[in-house]
User: What shape does this take?
Amino acid sequence: MATENNPLVALSNAMAEAVERASAFTVLVDARRRMPASGIAYATNLVLTADHIIEREDEIQVLLPDGSQAQASIAGRDSGNDLALLRLKNSGLVPAETAPQLARVGQLALAVGRPSSEGVQASLGVVSAIGGPVRTGQGGLLEQYLRTDTVPYPGFSGGPLIDSSGRVLGLNTSGLAQGVALTIPAPLAWKIAETLAKHGNVRRGYLGIRSQPVDLAATQRQALSREQHVGLLLVGVEDDSPASKSGLLVGDILVSLDGEPITDPDQLLARLIGEIVGKPTPVEILRGGQRQTIPVTIGERK
Amino acid sequence: MIELTTSLAEATAEVVRRVQRSLVVLHNGHHGVGAGIIWGSNQANKKRSGTLILTNYHVIAHGRHLRAELEDGTEHPARLLAQVPEIDLALLEIERDNLPAMMIADSHSLRVGELVLAIGHPWGQRSAVTAGLVSGLSTAQTRDPQKSIEIIRSDVNLAPGNSGGPLVNANGAVVGINTMILGGDQAIAVPSHVASAFVEGALKGD
Assistant: This one.
């Protein structure tokens, strides 16, 4: 088979080009005693990496794709999601491009890292599963994660999982689940990075309710005019909480927050992270069989 | 999309078939086997027609009765022409001609991310194929601390019996000789340009 018609050669070239593209935004982060790990250029002077690889707060060194060294300081940390944002003194990074769509199971994916000055390394696999929310070892709650069968080589934590065009599907880390390699999906990682850049930490929202999932009856689904089978029954509302101030009552069934259907308490908790804190947010409930939307200003959990 | 995956599968199968024809099983008189690459005919040998076989040094080291088993099942005694333990390569010759030589690529132009296939005899399983990519290009120190050699890292799955076998690119051309397994999930290959230089030197009598 001639080279120009061989789809295997085309695939091989596409993968090598994807790695080359990723190498332009994949950096080495040296902030621990043992071997360095990786990071992703988030902005021209910001690097997103895994929080667990930051073992010291000063003398953090970043090796850029062009081979130059840069000093970095911590712009923000979120140990619950194992993410950290580093700020370089000088700008000059080429920010990574994220994939336009969320990863799909079965999709070809490459894990890329820069564990040494010898250049980037890569590993091939597919997206094996998409899961979450999951409680992490650090007391956090990861809204969503990807599993892949790429090999997490030493020093790959903080580096990107890319698609076959070299766009970022997520950030790889072995620090979330007892050493098991997971990937934080790019939309989530970027959302957290945005919060870290602004506030230095991740703000966790607070409603002041206790809830449990309940099945919705056919008439309740009809009232919603959508196929949602589960909602959260409020079994407690704290005094002086954002929930009580906006008039939420025990017995209400919470069915969506900010336009997104909620079917699980962990999912609600995950939705309350980040920029939503302090904002008036529409909370959709079923009360007496009727659908109502009540604006609630999300409080901050201290 | 179905068409694409079908043509990918067909292209892979064709590459594998072509490489398998030029792959030998090496027996060294002990348990276990290694792999060898039909490198070409020995032009340096004017007296008789012989075929060159490249493998790892560690496959033939300590071996007494080296035999190469061809794809057709025939076995031929192999003679050791040259060996360099530092880069784990050895060159053998068998007295057969008109055997199909493997295509050799120039590994200087290899890039991280390129698709590669490893073909060998893991745990004695004949001509088994594993796929992956070039995961890194780096150097490793030899036993002599003054010297280092270039190596190809790949994420193909290897097992004993892959040693001496080829790591080929999407065209089916050899880019490396599979040599070592690190921790089960990282394979080390000697680049084909290092192997070509070794063979050239060996035939000149260097």
User: Anything to note?
Assistant: The domain at 14-102 of chain B is CATH 2.40.10.10 (Thrombin, subunit H).
